[in-house]
Structure formats: structure tokens, C-alpha cells
Design brief:
By secondary structure, the chain is α/β, with parallel strands linked by helices. It folds into two domains: about 170 residues, 3-Layer(aba) Sandwich (Rossmann fold), CATH 3.40.50.720; about 170 residues, 2-Layer Sandwich (Dihydrodipicolinate Reductase, domain 2). It contains eleven helices and 14 strands. An eight-stranded mixed sheet has the order 13-12-11-7-10-9-8-14. Strands 3-2-1-4-5-6 form a six-stranded parallel sheet, sandwiched between helices. α1 crosses α5. It starts with a helix and ends with a strand.
Length: about 375
């Protein structure tokens, strides 16, 4: 029996129409202007009905993001913790479900937002796609490229949209940096230095049945905490052709890594260094230093901290607002604006039959690189990517 079919059979019961829109939303894939600002999401009385899968912290973030979009209504919520599901239902609306099949049969419902353990994303997304529901899943798309490919194939077959919540792609200063790199402001790319030196207390793992497990988390600090940064490195600097890496479980009583260092060789010839931890107390803001032949751009806490380039464009300036979420030492998302922007973009893709900013194939890229990094950790050798 194929892997994803097995997951559907054993896990899906336990875990958990396009609307017309009018908005301004452009990026480098759609035009030369990079923006993630939306004006006027829904046009007319039509409502988009969304179902939430998960019931944990991130599903509440999805609920807040959905409530912030005019014309979007939470129709149903599925999760394995009835108390949490009922609480989200009371606060944000939507019918609570503890049975996954009954949840999928709920109507009206146009799309699902998946916030369950990472190792269930593909199985649950496939089940939803087979019901004709669009699928927007939390990062990572799943914990292996095999499962990601199965979900992508099923979404294609069903004719539904598939997106991945990589909200950093919608943050203003990160968008500006992407624009500058694409415009050649850095010149020939030379080095990317990415530091995700975060901390999670022991309870973060001890009180969870899935965090820090190979079966449902797929790994540790790399695939859970640093996968957003992996996505940004690929998005900004392009494909990676080979990796070397080393990891260890330095602090926590878990079966996967809490400390990892990787050296990346990009197809462009640039090198990269990635540090990913949940073991570094007290936890420090994520930092990206991106260097090319014409200078360096530094992003810290998602704010453009420094722009030292030989020929700066007129609109190149330091950013004004850091990310408000305390990601360095807490998994809780207090500021849901990034998630809201991803949802708005996904609704636009449904309405216009275009690809979302991060579709299934884009979401797969980070998982493929994560797989290569883990393979390098196991082998102690340089591992090719792609």
C-alpha cells in the first residue's frame, strides 16, 4: 500500500467555490513590483467558508487570520482535543468536530487550513482535495518529498489549489530585500549566513505528543523552526546543489536534533552557512546576512537592519519595524498579519486561477533541501541536492 494511502487509512480519522475578489497583489512572479498589500478582498455578498484542521496554537493563528479577512467565515474546526476545538469554535465561530470524515463532509466549505502535526499534512490534504476542497497547509508541506509529491499530484488531479503557509515571504522588509537581490543590487551573490539560534524550554517538547519526534515532526530544529529560513534562502539565493552538515541533540530529551550547522553550495556558486537550534538560551532574533560582489544586506527579526552596498538605489533604507512575534524563545504567534497576507494571496489565486505565492511545488523545495541536510548529517559526507 502506498505510504500516503497508509497514512490516510491509519491517521486521518484520528487527527485531523471560488470567490470573486478585487485586490492589489503583486510579486516578482507576477510583475516587477513586489508588494503584499491587499485592498478590498471580497467583492459583493459572496462568502468564502474555511475549515480549520488542528486545534492547537497555530490553528488559533489561522482563525485570527481568517477573521481579519472581510468575507471569510470559519465554517468548521477539526481536532483531537475536544476542549481546545470547542474553545476556538466559541471564540471564532465554526462547528467543532472530533470526527475527521464528518468534518470533511461539512458544507458550505470551500477550503481547509491545515495546522496539524507536520507528518499528517499530506494525508489530510489529500483527503480534503478528494472532497474538492482547496488546501492551504502550514509549513512544512510534509516531512518528506515523497509525501509532498503525493499531495501535489492529488491536488492537481482534483483541480484544487494547494498552498503552503510561508508567511515570511509577505513581510515588508523581506520583500524589499528580495526585490533588491533580483534587481542586482548585491551583484554576484557570494555568501549567505543564516542564524536561527533559538531556544525552547523542555516543556515545549515534554508536553507535546508530536514535537521532537521523527514520525510526526520529521526532525527537530531544522525542519520545524528553521524551515522558514530554508525557504527564504532558496527564494532569495536560488537552488542549492550540495550540502555538508552536522547535528546533535545537545540539550533536550528528544529523538531528533536540537542543534545543527549546514554548509550550502548554491547553483550560482555562492556559499551558505545555516545554524538551526532550539538549544541556545535565551534565544536570539533570526539573522540573515546576504553578501554579493556589490555589498551586504542584513535582516534581523525580519527587519532590514543594514544595507551596505556600493551603489544603493534611492529606495534602499533601513527598515522601521521588526517582527512582533517572539519566535526566538516562544512558539506562540501573537501577530497574525503574515498569516493573513498568505490567506489573502491564496484567496486571490482561487479567484483568478493563478498560482499562490508559495504553491505546493515551491513548498516542496524546502523539504527537499531539509532531506539533503539530514542525509549529510547521517553520512558525514557532502550530499548532492536535487
Amino acid at each position: 500500500m502506498p505510504l500516503v494511502e497508509t497514512l490516510l487509512q491509519h491517521h486521518a480519522p484520528q487527527f485531523g467555490s471560488p470567490v470573486e475578489t478585487q485586490l492589489t497583489l503583486t510579486d516578482n512572479d507576477r510583475s516587477s513590483e513586489v508588494s503584499c498589500k491587499v485592498s478590498g478582498i471580497l467583492k459583493g455578498p459572496m462568502t468564502t467558508y474555511i475549515g480549520l484542521i488542528g486545534g492547537g496554537n497555530i490553528s488559533e493563528t489561522h482563525a485570527r487570520a481568517a477573521r481579519a479577512v472581510p468575507g471569510v467565515e470559519i465554517a468548521a474546526i477539526y481536532g483531537t482535543n475536544p476542549e481546545k476545538v470547542r474553545r476556538i469554535s466559541r471564540e471564532y465561530g465554526g462547528r467543532p468536530y472530533s470526527d475527521f470524515e464528518q468534518f470533511l463532509d461539512h458544507r458550505p466549505m470551500n477550503l481547509v487550513a491545515i495546522g496539524s502535526p507536520s507528518g499528517l499534512h499530506a494525508a489530510q490534504g489529500i483527503a480534503a482535495a478528494r472532497r474538492g476542497l482547496h488546501v492551504l497547509t502550514e509549513k512544512p508541506i510534509d516531512i518528506s518529498t515523497e509525501r509532498a509529491d503525493a499531495l501535489i499530484s492529488e491536488a492537481d488531479k482534483a483541480g484544487v489549489k494547494l498552498g503552503v503557509w510561508f508567511q515570511d515571504r509577505c513581510k515588508p522588509d523581506i520583500l524589499r530585500v528580495k526585490k533588491f537581490i533580483d534587481a542586482g543590487v548585491l551583484g554576484r551573490t557570494i555568501l549567505a549566513d543564516a542564524r536561527v539560534k533559538w531556544y525552547r524550554p523542555p516543556d515545549y517538547y515534554a508536553k507535546s505528543r508530536w514535537r521532537g519526534t521523527a514520525a510526526l515532526d520529521g526532525g527537530g530544529a531544522l525542519i520545524n523552526q528553521a524551515v522558514h529560513t530554508v525557504d527564504l534562502l532558496l527564494w532569495m539565493f536560488g537552488d542549492v546543489v550540495s550540502v555538508q552538515a552536522s547535528s546533535k541533540t545537545a540539550l533536550h530529551a528528544i529523538e531528533v536534533e536540537d542543534t545543527l550547522v549546514a554548509v550550502l553550495q548554491f547553483a550560482s556558486g555562492a556559499l551558505g552557512v545555516l545554524q538551526a537550534t532550539t538549544s541556545v538560551y535565551p534565544g536570539y532574533p533570526r539573522r540573515l546576512e546576504l553578501t554579493g560582489s556589490e555589498g551586504t544586506l542584513i535582516i534581523e527579526q525580519d527587519r532590514l537592519l543594514a544595507a551596505d552596498v556600493r551603489n544603493p538605489p534611492e529606495d534602499l533604507r533601513a527598515g522601521t519595524e521588526a517582527d512582533l512575534n517572539r519566535s526566538a524563545d516562544s512558539p506562540v504567534v501573537n501577530d497574525a498579519r503574515g498569516h493573513q497576507a498568505v490567506l489573502e494571496d491564496f484567496l486571490h489565486s482561487i479567484a483568478t486561477n493563478t498560482n499562490p505565492r508559495c504553491d505546493g511545488r515551491e513548498g516542496r523545495r524546502s523539504v527537499a533541501l531539509v532531506e539533503a541536510i539530514y542525509a549529510a548529517c547521517r553520512s558525514g559526507k557532502q550530499v548532492p541536492c536535487g
